[in-house]
Amino acid sequence: MSVTQTNLHDQTPAPETPGTPGATDERVSPPKPNLRRLADFPALYYVSFLAVLLIAAATDNLPDSMLAGFAATIILGGLFIWIGNTVPVLRDFGLPTILCTFVPSILIFAGVMPENLIAVVQNFVKGYGFLDFFVVTIIAGSILGMPRALLLKAGPRFIVPLVGCLAATFSIIGLLGLVTGFGFIEGILFIAAPIMAGGLGVGALPMSEMYAARTGGSSADFMGDLMSAVVMANIVCILIAGIYNGIGKRGIQPFIGFNGHGELMRIKGKAGDLTSPPKKDVASFLSLGKGLAIAGILFIVGNLVAAFIPGLHPYAWTIIIAAAIKIFGLFPKELEDASSEWGDMIGAFLIPALLVGVSITYINIEEVLQSLSNPMFILLTIVTVLVATLSSGILGWLVKLNFVEASITPGLVMADTGGSGDVSVLSAAGRMHLMPFAALTNRIGGALVLFVTSLLVPFFG
Prior knowledge:
This protein is mainly α. It has two domains: 32-128, no CATH class; 129-459, no CATH class. The chain has helices spanning 43-58, 66-85, 95-110, 115-127, 130-145, 148-180, 184-196, 204-215, 220-249, 285-308, 314-327, 333-349, 351-362, 365-372, 375-398, 403-415, 420-429, 435-456; strands at residues 2-4, 37-38, 41-42, 282-284. It starts with a strand and ends in a 5-residue tail after the last helix.
């Protein structure tokens, strides 16, 4: 028996990677939404599910349980994703993600969301640990699912722009924060770190938990600022990617190795070493169950080590342990595949649910508006993306990668929201076949950013 992995976030199968490296893709736009299906359910049934959810919440009869929490966030997330995908042009600029992230909190701010629904979702995310469930699953699946040969053979060359753009961005944004009065550590932790994490699941969400643990406050105290930076940076990434695409179509080539027209490396015959195998479309029930258990055990081990060796967040120890397992081959392929398949399924189906849960639990619209009213916050966010893009392109060019392609991945891909952000950026750049490199960036870069952030948190406050 098997289950099909459905990408709720895009509501279409993941794009295929062309077989010819270096071929220039035509710009790929998100497909038109299927009016007969919402959240991958037949429309009539989805509307019925939504009606049941709203009636139960309005009459204060929505049960405070994990099961109701899953149902509420999945149904609401599917609605906002579908609405976002119905809007031409804007859907290319991350509208579905923006709606999931901010509309629920706006509804709370406006006083129109039932209190019963708010309480159930908040307890689901915090009390029942949905946040830990999602973050650790993605960490475990990403690291254990990374081909070992890819890390050992292609890693050193690709790591140069990835680590270099991270170091440059942290340093420059920290110094700008210091000069402008925003603060050195504050500039890194609240601007550079969440943006450069390459996704919300290993960015704003766990970082807010780290900062709360450090200060003794609540995750909600930090989530508004972190999410604002991530979403704004994603829009800037897409705009820059579109500019690169336009430059390529006009044949502008100011120097050798500037534009590879989709080919990442300038060394012929080496690109195949950087290719990740395609994700599976199906996974057995037993494999998914084992993946769930592995994620849970890694989370327990991470917390256990953190209890005896304080100083690093349990998420950071989980990353270290998973990486050690992968590098030293401590798991058989069966268990690595199980963890990867479970992570792929959760990432494909539950991202909208997670965003809705985060919006209801952590986002305070008043705080977001206050952040966006700060010109320095906006300036540092834009500069973060520009530094990441240019430094990645320059360092990539120095190690025989093409400047534009290295600017896009790891540069722009590190600064977008991951998942839908990668699709939007690569689509705008006309280079969807670079998706395997985007996955490599998100997996290694996201884990590295979270690890470095955990080292800097003790200096905060």
